[in-house]
């Protein structure tokens, strides 16, 4: 969870207006929206601010929920947090290792993309097209530069949990696979996100989930595009973003 929410990052949640429509059509809808309350970015930001990572993520998630209320988004059926699902994450990693698609190196656990032939199917990318260091940390211990972390060994000053591979914390991608399986089962209908998540995040989710359970499947992937400002993607780094809170203050509610 990173805050404040800008218009583009909020699109991924606003588009779930179709959950209203599905309910209108009398479908039973179970909508899961998870909070990543611990990861590399949160730890780095917390260290920068001299704040506890969980305190920081709680503040950000509270701001996010306030923004969603301003947008009159329907609340999800379930809103799990990573830190509450370590057992499920560890169990899934064990399954992936047992099925020959992951390996342990000095307390870290990596997914082996070479052992998953379907890798790249969602994004249309081939392993040969992936450059080492592109959204994937370069590590000589990896069997393939594209291998990604399922579990990260504990480092000084970082939160950690016990595991069969030693103290550590989950990698980013495995969190979503484990919580999806917990609340939606191994197969479900719709998975959404921004188009920037197609690779590597959603590609890795598919690999993890199917490596843990071969029957895992998602019927529809829905990705929203970017919001552009003067021909450039809206982003914090470019300083061209506007927050939901600012919009709410500028215009009366509900926004017409």
TrEMBL record:
GO biological process: cysteinyl-tRNA aminoacylation
EC numbers for this chain: 6.1.1.16
NCBIfam families: cysS
Cofactor(s) for this UniProt protein: Zn(2+)
UniProt xrefs under PANTHER family: CYSTEINE--TRNA LIGASE, CHLOROPLASTIC_MITOCHONDRIAL, CYSTEINYL-TRNA SYNTHETASE
Protein name listed in UniProt: cysteine--tRNA ligase
Regions crossing the membrane: none
A Pfam family that the UniProt record links to this protein: tRNA-synt_1e
Any one of the GO CC terms: cytoplasm
Annotated organism of origin: Aegilops tauschii subsp. strangulata
Domain of life: Eukaryota
